[in-house]
Amino acid sequence: MEAPSSKKLCCTVCVHTVKSIPVIFILCILAWSYYAYVYHLCLSRVTSVELSVPYLLVYHIILVLFLWSYFKTIFTEPSGAPPNFRLPEEVFEEFNRNPIDLSRQSAILRDFAENLPIMTFTNTNEHFFSDIRFCDKCKIVKPDRSHHCSVCRKCVLKMDHHCPWVNNCVSYSNYKYFILFLAYGLLMCIFVAATTIEYVIKFWDITTDMRIQDGSYKIHIIFLFFIASMFSLSLFSLLAYHIYLVSKNRTTLESFRPPKFLEGSDKNGFNLGCCRNIREVFGKEVLLWPFPIDTRLGEGVSFPINKTVPEAQSLLFSDVNDQKTSIDFEHYDTSLFTSILISDDNMSSTDTNAPKYQDLIQI
Fold this sequence. Notes:
Blueprint: H1 2-19, H2 21-45, H3 49-75, H4 89-96, H5 102-112, E1 134-135, E2 140-141, E3 147-149, E4 154-156, E5 161-163, E6 168-170, H6 175-204, H7 217-248, H8 252-256, E7 260-261, E8 264-265, H9 274-282, H10 310-313, H11 318-321, E9 337-342, E10 357-362
Antiparallel strand pairs: 1-2, 3-4, 5-6, 7-8, 9-10
Helix pairs in contact: 2-7, 3-6, 4-5, 6-7
EC number: 2.3.1.225
Catalytic activity: L-cysteinyl-[protein] + hexadecanoyl-CoA = S-hexadecanoyl-L-cysteinyl-[protein] + CoA
Keywords: Acyltransferase, Membrane, Transferase, Transmembrane, Transmembrane helix
């Protein structure tokens, strides 16, 4: 029994080591850039104290915020579905008793999800009911906007993507930290490039003494400038894209595969307007936005939806519901929702294959 156990432990260590290679690479680049910037530039080449002190001060402030955000992104555990979304063993056995009977499985899931706050469904044949989103690996009914991550081996709340550079899922739990990591990384690269370009130009200027001076510091500073410039371009494009997603209250997965509501797929289903979308991720306290601390709103399980989505229009007491978004979710009781099946009496008589709908009604 010891051999298989030690072999499994060895495999686990190897897998974790391989997954950590991108993180180790970034930390090595960061360590070298710190040596090149602090020692070779600020302490060796910048002779003016009026310049070197501000350079070092600003650089270290940005570096601390960058590392703080980066490690928070790495070590924040992705949130999984609450226990009430997991099928009991007897229900799961009943669900798997006849795998080819899809209608029976769908009925079991609908009965189980009757009191769960679910507004999105899986894509199926348009002439039938939309099925409840279910993960057979985790044995749970998937909450809205959650997806199963094959790397983390769990269903992750509001999953955006799995990022190898942080060796973690970017999701509801750490999305703010991830954006701050990109922002401070971009800021640091721009600052380094801006403060080193003067010396890079002097190295190539034949009229200056620096061109004929000997020293390995030239190579460090020149490489530092070009690496900071290249990283600036990639970080800018990535940060701009995620700022756009935040402004639309959309994840990377949802931008490629829009969430499906009862009336169909809608990529703007969770779009509440730019300001409210930003507060969904960064919270209500604007002064805390620049710091990688938890200020997110809601619980990551249920989300307010756009008023143009038919489900939102079907909610009773809409004037009250307009004010109860996830901005107030810390005081919001999700048990106020219950799921019922209703028929659309206004359905066109020519559409014989049109489905019935499952609306979420607030009572």
